[in-house]
Design a protein that fits this description.
This protein has three domains: 2-72, no CATH class; 117-337, no CATH class; 448-683, PPM-type phosphatase domain (Phosphatase 2c, domain 1, 4-Layer Sandwich), CATH 3.60.40. 44% of the residues lie in helices and 20% in strands. It contains 14 helices and 21 strands. A six-stranded mixed beta sheet has the order 2-1-5-4-3-9. Strands 12, 13, 14, 15, 18 and 19 form a six-stranded mixed beta sheet that branches. The protein is flat and about 125 Å long. The protein starts with a helix and ends in a 21-residue tail after the last strand. Mean pLDDT is 80; it is low at 263-276, 519-530 and 687-704.
Length: 704
Amino acid sequence: MLFHRLLQEYRTHRVARFTAWLLAYGLALWLMDRLTHATPPPLWTLFWAAAVPSAAYYFYRSLEFTRQRLLWRLRWRLMVTYLFIAVIPIGLIALLILFGGVILGGQFASFLVTSNLRSRAAELQGLSRVIAHEGDFFAATSREALLEQLQRSVTDNLSPHLASYPALEVTLWLAGAARAFRVDGQGGSNPVRIPPWLGGREGFAGVVVDRGRLVLRGFDRSGTHLGPLTVILSEPFTPELLDEIAAGIGPVALIAPENNPLQSGSPDETSRLGLRGAVRLRSASVAVPPPANLFDATISNLASLEPVEWDGPTERRDTGAGLFLVTSRISALNREILSTLGPLSGFYWTALAVVGVVFLLLEIVSLIIGVKLTRSMTTTVDKLYTATEHVKRGDFSYRIRLPARDQLSALGEAFDSMTASVERLLRESLEKTRLEGELEIAREVQSQLFPQAVPLVPGLQLYGACRPARVVSGDYYDFLRLDEDRVGLVLGDISGKGISAALLMATLQSALHAQFYDGDCPHGPSESGLARTAEVVARLNRQLFASSPTEKYVTLFYAVYEAASRRLTYTNAGHPPPILFRGGRLERLETGGTVVGLFPSIRYEQAEVRLEPEDVLLAFTDGITEPENSYGEEFGDERLLAAVESVAGASAEIIAEEIYRRVNDWTGGPELQDDMTLLVARVVRRDDGHPAPVEIPGSPRAAG
């Protein structure tokens, strides 16, 4: 049964067929990706670009199915109403509180760790200040002796506190002489260079990156009898240091991104975190605090490290050095937040619980009120349904006669007055149907005024199409076969839209064809048919001025092409200038005059241009360049030129279809904003270089 319905859907809906082929395309991409691991990203981009509108279409259809089938009965609608009134708001608020708590908790955990780091760095700076001032109390007579005395003093004083300062490194600078050592005596240490960006600053405290290492560093200066003394204390990041700053919070891990010089460890260590990097360091002994209750969840959050580049020419922070990953629990963070309150900390949780209970009671009361209100609706809805069944059977005399106690019951009175108007609406509907039928006849008649076949001209491809915004169009295009070697190209745009514009279009067509009619040879041109284009347009102007309303006019482009010389003679009467594409250059055909039919006596001019093989002439109405998108932006000439250049070298028909496609994509809707008419002429050649006749398959119709 399901397969039968899917097959029926595939046969009757274009979107279903499109979706089926799209899924097959996606499956092929997936298989290619699994087998070769080299699927080009543009192919997936194309898939998702096509999948989004298809998914949106079926999502909309699923909503329609739910509304029409599952929610048709009033009882189900009421259940959904209760769900949205009472259940979903509580769930959304609870989810919002939970999500906000997780975010704030993670941010607070990161804040605690960074605060501990700053405090630790400030402690190192204070210790360096003590050591620097201690240099004034030694009576050494040389720099080396003073440095030696300072080293013994620092080692003796800090050795009992090695647990608090693991791997602490000390650098002493005295008037250009340097000495570096570790307090624990484990290995040597290279002197830390004083960077130029410190300048005359007396102190510094913070996280720095120095020679590929992350260290906490404190810095201070003081004067001695042997010269200025600079003390630099450095504490490399170690698991023991992370334990110190993470005490009471939870384990801390230092994550370095890929290709970072600070990185160590394996990238697999962070696969569970969804991070592209490696854990460089992690706390040695600090673990996640045990849960205080069932809802005491674990919270993880990332904090930016951003150490200062110690060896840089300026004080610049390295934003790509790595991140802190802090893991804690809600109960541990709450203890840190409320630690200053002591016994009063429980008061706030009690207050929060009271507010939650009150909120729950209010929701229950709201649910009861909603049930009562919906019950009052069911009686009116039932009577309205019964009345509609009578109307479906054609019984317009049935009346509900409900007293209008509220807005819903007032619908009964509105229904009673509506049935009295139904008969009048039916008569109007019949009249509208008759008018639509007449418009359809007008459309069929107008379609016969457009060329039914493209004339064969040596060396020239021709294509024309008109897509009306309404049933009938006010645009006009034509191909006039003047003789075996000449063809006339006509494109016009009548002011206004609808029936009035279509009638004036028919007048223009008949007036133009009358100039080329020879009574002895109805299918051949008269001598006037080979006249100058300016004279033809001038005669049309006089004819339309005499036979059309004063406010009506026509923008017209008329040209004659001679195949033997590839010469195009044209006159542009107020029409958007056609564009001649030749060898990457553009030429606008603007010579002519003002619009046709607005003034009685106008002098028009004409111009000539010689066409070369591969030249493309594009004539169009303003319905091509002026359509707007949802932001009010016009399609414009630049996008029209880009559309033609994208199919350079293609046939005239393909050029026109590409332009129509891009305009439709730009507007984003099936309804046209104006009549869209195109006339495309493309010069072709034989292999020996001489023009050859080219016929465009298919006959253009008024609908394009």
